[in-house]
Predict the 3D structure of the following.
Amino acid sequence: MKVKVIDFGFKEGKKLNYVRYRVSELDKSSLEKLFIELEEEMEKDSEDLIITIYHPQEYFPLGSDEAQIRMEDFISREEIEMNVFLSSFLQEE
């Protein structure tokens, strides 16, 4: 499984910050399990899953002053954390 941050910013309609992830290289059963059981906003894009997570400003991981200086590091950390979360979710029975 690969996780990539594909977009992030502020969504006016929800008045929340968001991070969008593309999750690829999932087998069909894992893709279906995530799509059905996760509560986050999701969509399928061919064989990939697009997940959008919303955050209030105070919890937005890419909004800090440090993130602005080292954005690549913060994006990488987000990708790793989402990968760990999804992997642990898929291992639960």
